[in-house]
Amino acid sequence: MFDRYQGGERAVLVHVDFPDQNNQEDLTEFVDLTTSAGLEILGIITTSRSSPQPKYFVGTGKIEEVADLVEQEKADVVLFNHSLSPSQERNIEYLTKCRVVDRTGLILDIFAQRAHTHEGKLQVELAQLQHISTRLVRGWTHLERQKGGIGLRGPGETQLETDRRLLRERIKTIRKRLEKVERQREQGRRSRKRANVPTVSLVGYTNAGKSTLFNRLTESRVLAADQLFATLDPTHRRININEQQSVILADTVGFIRHLPHDLVAAFKATLQESREADILLHVIDASDERREDNKEQVYLVLDEIGANDSPLVEVYNKSDKVDGMAARVEKDPETERYRVYCSAVTGVGLDGLFETIAALLQQDWVETVLRLSPAEMALRGQLYDLKCVQSERITDQGEFIIEVRMTIADWKRLERKNEIDLKRLEHDSNLLT
C-alpha cells in the first residue's frame, strides 16, 4: 500500500521550469536527490510552463513523451521535481502504466532509508502516513467496495474507509510516542541548563558539511557522506572551546528548499534542538554556486520553526575549494553577524570559529532585575524553569523583585512566548537588598 521503492530501480525524471519563483525547483539538486535515493536515471525530460496543467501537471504532448520514454527504457518509476496532487499522480500513472512519485515522496523515501534510531523511524513514518492519507484512492479502486462474504455483508464500511480509520489510529499512536520523546528531550535540555552548559547547534542546507565539521570539532565518527540528508538523527557531544568554557555541540538534520510541511511537523522534537540552542552555527558550502539561494532557504525554515532568536554565526565551510577565499573571521556590517571562513576537512580556520563562539558566549548574557506583580506568577515560574533566578524578595505590596541572569536567546523566547516586552518589567537594581 505504501509507495516505497528499493535502491537500484530505474527512473525517468520530469522537471518543469516556471517563471514564478515560488514554484521553481533546481534540476541539479533533483538529480542529487535521485542518486541519493539509490535510483538509476534513464532520462530527464524538461519543459517550461507558465502554470501547472490541472490533469497531468505538464502538457498532453509532454506527458505522452514521458510515457514513450518509460516504455522504451522499461522504467520502474517516474519522478517529478514538484509536488503533485493525488488526482495528477493517478492520471499520470494510468497513462504511463508506471509508478509516479513526486518531490515530497522522494524526500520521504530518502528519509526512510536514512532513519536508524527509534525516534527517527517514528518521525519518518508519521510524515509518510500524513502524506499517503490523501492518496489512498490512487490505484486502489477495489477499496471502494464493501467487504463481502459470510458475516461481512451489510451496510458496513468500505475497505477504503477501514484503511483511512487505521491510518488515523496509527498517526494518533505515533504522535503520542513522539510527545514522550519530546518530553525526554526537554528534560535533557533542562539538565544542561542546570549545569550551565550552553548549547551550540549546527544548522544549514543539506550536504553543506555539517557532520564533517561536527566530527572535526568533537573528534567523533558521525556518518558524513557526500549525499543529501546523510544525517537524520541529532547527535550531541561536549567540547571545550577554550580553557574556561565548554559547550554542547548538536548536529541536526539538513534543510532543503520547499521542505515538506509533513516533515517539519514530524521532526518537531528534533528541530526543537535548533529552537532552544544558545548559538546557531549556519554551515554554508562556500564552493556551491547556489549558496546565496540556499542561505535564504535555510533562513526561511528557521523562521518557520521559530529558531530565529538565537545569535547566529555564518560558517563558510569548504573555503579551501574556492580560489582566493582565505580563512578569516569578519562581521557583516548590515546584519552584525559573524562570518567564519574555514575548512572542516583540513581544519584551517577552526581556531577563529572557537574564538567567535567564546566571544558570543561572553556577550550573550542579560543580567537585570525584574519587578513582577502577583498576576505574573506564570512568568515567575518560567524564570525558575530556566534556572536563571539569582535572588528574590517580596515587597509589602506582594510584588516579586527578582534578580535574573539569562542568555539573550532565552530573553527573546520569553518575550515571544508571553507576548510582552520584558524591558518594561525591569526594576532599579539599587533597590534590591
Structure write-up:
The protein is an alpha/beta fold and 433 residues long. 39% of the residues lie in helices and 20% in strands. It is built from 13 helices and 14 strands. A seven-stranded mixed sheet has the order 6-7-5-8-9-11-10, with helices on both faces. It has a four-stranded parallel sheet with strand order 2-1-3-4, with helices on both faces. Strands 12-14-13 form a three-stranded antiparallel sheet. α4 packs antiparallel against α5. The radius of gyration is 26 Å and the shape is globular. The N terminus and C terminus are likely disordered.
State the end-to-end CA separation: 69 Å
Main sheet attributes: strand count, strand direction, barrel closure: 7 strands, mixed
Low-confidence parts, pLDDT < 50 over ≥5 residues? Answer: 1-8, 138-149, 151-156, 429-433
Output the strand order for the largest sheet: 6-7-5-8-9-11-10
Q: Secondary-structure element sequence? A: EHEHEHEHHHEHEEHHEHEEEHEHEEH
Helix content class: 25-40%
**Outline type:** globular
Number of strands: 14
Instruction: Give me the Rg, rounded.
Output: 26 Å
Output the structural class. Answer: alpha/beta
- Report the average pLDDT across residues: 78
Note the beta-strand portion: 15-25%
Number of helices: 13
Task: Map the helices and strands.
Blueprint: E1 10-17, H1 27-36, E2 40-48, H2 60-73, E3 77-80, H3 86-96, E4 99-101, H4 103-114, H5 118-132, H6 159-194, E5 199-204, H7 210-218, E6 235-240, E7 246-251, H8 261-266, H9 268-275, E8 279-285, H10 291-304, E9 312-317, E10 328-331, E11 338-341, H11 350-362, E12 365-372, H12 377-385, E13 389-394, E14 400-407, H13 408-418
Parallel strand pairs: 1-2, 1-3, 3-4, 5-7, 5-8, 8-9, 9-11
Antiparallel strand pairs: 6-7, 10-11, 12-14, 13-14
